[in-house]
């Protein structure tokens, strides 16, 4: 689960991290009062969407010369003007895709005098099985570009879960960020605070870009991006209200109701597969034969007929889908259950695009018989390679 910047900062502040004062608003009418509640005289008006690159983004409705999704304001009147221009409009960034995201809330924040911009994040390092700090002196920039062009400027440090953030860890991170004076003193408190927030709330990502050194030498979290591990959501009922469903794909929301692993993509071939690895392979081979997957969808190992029906309905609800590939290797998952779910879904929503089904494994004979006797226009495939070729050909000839 992703949350907005203002929510992430409030959470980090509750753990003791240094953040600026700020107010979230949902209408331009709230802008003036929000700004008046802050010290000023410099304010920052920030679009709140679940995407990076907001500062360099452009609003669809405002033309190429308009300012981006993060703006400085030197007066309360400027804050109000920016709020009126930004709220309700569509911000397009490098992470939103061309469709962009509508800005439904803003964060009005007190400004800061910046001496240096640094990069800091925490994530789970799969190679060590530990939480790791990733830091760089090149903050405020596209960290992917830094990694590509100057990888030596990115330092990673895994944390021993038994010891936590030690004095030697703090020294190593402070040295990597070239911190001195007050900033170095602040780091002794900040790094353990961020680690505690990450681990105690089961985050999967905490990114501070930039972490700034202000003119007075102190550290401040200037931006914050937080994602939580959905598998740990049962432990954090208090975090559930932070979810903003308006930022999520409607099909992904529907899939979550049935415990389906679904991610919407930009292609034209809908996929229903059991197992994440098999799903990835299915998407790869679709691309190999010249088409693009419309989704990642893993129905899991113990799916019921109802769950499969829901999955099929979600796929067919996507207007971009021009063909569907069902690829099931039955271990725990039974092929006859998949067949029954596909038939139930087709009877309910209809079948307007080509459908290729590849079944193998547990009760495969029964599954194929169910499909054969259904009267559906189903194209049967013998293996994954055969299935991918058949669905791509069927879509091209449709």
From TrEMBL:
Names of required cofactors: Mg(2+)
InterPro entries: ATP-grasp (IPR011761), ATP-grasp_succ-CoA_synth-type (IPR013650), ATP_grasp_subdomain_1 (IPR013815), Succ-CoA_synthase_bsu_CS (IPR017866), SUCC_ACL_C (IPR005811), Succ_CoA_ligase-like_bsu (IPR005809), Succinyl-CoA_synth-like (IPR016102)
EC number in record: 6.2.1.5
Top-level EC class: ligase
Pfam family, one: Ligase_CoA
Record domain ATP-grasp: where: 9-254
Entry annotated with the keyword Ligase: yes
Pathway(s) served: Carbohydrate metabolism; tricarboxylic acid cycle; succinate from succinyl-CoA (ligase route): step 1/1
Reactions it catalyzes: succinate + ATP + CoA = succinyl-CoA + ADP + phosphate; GTP + succinate + CoA = succinyl-CoA + GDP + phosphate
UniProt: Mg(2+) binding residues: 209, 223
Known partners and oligomeric status: Heterotetramer of two alpha and two beta subunits.
Family: Belongs to the succinate/malate CoA ligase beta subunit family.
Name of protein: Succinate--CoA ligase [ADP-forming] subunit beta
Source species of the chain: Devosia algicola
